[in-house]
Fold this sequence. Notes:
Layout: H1 8-14, E1 16-20, H2 24-35, E2 39-43, H3 49-55, E3 62-63, H4 67-73, E4 76-79, H5 86-93, E5 102-105, H6 110-120, E6 126-132, E7 144-151, H7 154-164, E8 170-173, H8 176-203, H9 217-230, H10 234-242, H11 245-266, H12 270-285, H13 297-302, H14 319-331, H15 344-358, H16 362-372, H17 377-396, H18 399-445
Parallel strand pairs: 1-2, 1-4, 2-3, 4-5, 5-6, 7-8
Antiparallel strand pairs: 6-7
Amino acid sequence: MEHTKPSIKQLQEQKVIGLIGLGDMGCLYARRFSQAGWRVVGCDREDLYETNKTKFADESFELLKNGHLVSRLADYIIYSVEAENINRIVSLYGPSTKIGAIVGGQTSCKGPEISAFEEHLPPDNKIISLHSLHGPKVNTVGQPLVIVRHRASDEDLYFVEQLVSCLQSKKVLLTAKEHDRITADTQAVTHAAFLSMGTAWSAINQYPWETPRWVGGIENAKANISMRIYSNKWHVYAGLAITNPSAHEQVLMYSQSVSELFTLMISGEEAILRERLHKAKEFVFHHVNENDLLLDDNILDRYSLSKEPPGGKQPNSHLSLLAIVDSWFRLGIIPYDHIICSTPLFRIFLGVTEYLFCRGNLLDECIKVAVSDTTFRHDDLNFTMASSNWANIISFGNFDLYRREFEKTQEFFKPMLTEANALGNQMIKTILDRVREKEAAADAKIP
Ligand SMILES: NC(=O)C1=CN([C@@H]2O[C@H](COP(=O)(O)OP(=O)(O)OC[C@H]3O[C@@H](n4cnc5c(N)ncnc54)[C@H](OP(=O)(O)O)[C@@H]3O)[C@@H](O)[C@H]2O)C=CC1
Ligand SMILES: O=C(O)C(=O)Cc1ccc(O)cc1
């Protein structure tokens, strides 16, 4: 006999949703689910309960004292806590989980999260994890939402899909292993590149928008994204890279590419550099049509933090962008294969590199400048050292050192972060709207 599936309304009458961790992402979910008609209970740290009662007083979800109370009551519990602490927090509350309930997490690397669930949850509990591939201030509509069904029935999955449908994100079903491999390729290396730019600018004591050496659209995108990362919480980026073993390999390869390309530049090896980069271009961008690039001058030029009017463009060696394509080639990664599972920052990073490699003869101009013009040597040397430093910190798995380096650079940019973030948000919104338009146009072409 075939069972009819319950409607969302019926599920909403039966099920309680629980959030453990009401920071940026936990609060986003708690709000969205409760506003869509689900009963939602949540908790943050128990020692902050009294303060949080005031903070969350006007919300449409219910604040409980701790994760035990959430776990006893909820039918689907989502841990939305720092990746570094996931095992410890699941060990605390996991044994209190309601019989038969489903449990998942929002941390950015699924291997350690699923291991924590397997270790600490009673065997009757099911496991379905989530990962929204965007920050808390991005519109959830159309963004990828990874669902990892690890230990659960079709009915359980159906319930979770009904719950998340209010986000209107694009569901991507993956295993934990697939998820971690792809996000190492997309997120971890993207962050490593922009973290290194920020550290290098801070090391030479230079805001990039305050010097005529850096003008033009590509520079705007680099500065805005770097500032966006430094205006966020360090633990988000540390957790994502350090807890994912695949990310270590990627970040180390990126820093090796940076160092090798820089060596070719300062040795004046133009022909070798050109051959190496054209090979990488052919591998990564062979299908790209120059008339159909994600970004154009118009978009890129619009979002500058500089107070000066845009002048003539200054060529740059673009070491950070040359190196990402070189490392994709050496790791056999075609970044377009991961677009279904990509974050806004990754899509912009890809858009900017695509622009540099495929627009007119920009790539050859850039190679020429890299070898012959010494204006950027000091910056490129600092970038090379910064990327090697970040790769070491990540592969040694040192959270404390990560935090120290991150906050040191963050301090340097602090006076500009609010303005930079507002501009970065506009830039990202424009680019995402544009991506949506392009996708819609492509879908319309399919017969
Ligand atoms: N921010 C982002 O862009 C994204 C983040 N993620 C991932 O989602 C997770 C949450 O990130 P985000 O919301 O940004 O981080 P936040 O730091 O804003 O939120 C985590 C919350 O969990 C709280 N917490 C710590 N211990 C406990 C506990 N024992 N019980 C209940 N709550 C606790 C923290 O309190 P306190 O701060 O006082 O320790 C904090 O309020 C992370 O794993 C992150 O990597 C995923 C997608 C996007
Ligand atoms: O887009 C990015 O890379 C971000 O910086 C936001 C972000 C951070 C962590 C995640 O797990 C997912 C998205």
